[in-house]
Amino acid sequence: MKNRREFNRMIEECKARYINLVITKSISRFARNTLDCLQYARELKAKQVAIYFEKENINTMDAS
């Protein structure tokens, strides 16, 4: 995602554990395609960073 400089900065800050929760309007606003979304969600979850998708009411740290 080379054209999303601020998104990439946010991901790096999450990985460095400066951020522990990302709140976004919807899945489509977070990532441009499903594979990218899943990749970032897995990477961030491994670092104990949650993503909350408001429209879908999904929190990646929920057990279900």
From TrEMBL:
<protein>
    <submittedName>
        <fullName>Resolvase</fullName>
    </submittedName>
</protein>
<dbReference type="InterPro" id="IPR006119">
    <property type="entry name" value="Resolv_N"/>
</dbReference>
<dbReference type="InterPro" id="IPR036162">
    <property type="entry name" value="Resolvase-like_N_sf"/>
</dbReference>
<feature type="domain" description="Resolvase/invertase-type recombinase catalytic">
    <location>
        <begin position="1"/>
        <end position="64"/>
    </location>
</feature>
<dbReference type="Pfam" id="PF00239">
    <property type="entry name" value="Resolvase"/>
</dbReference>
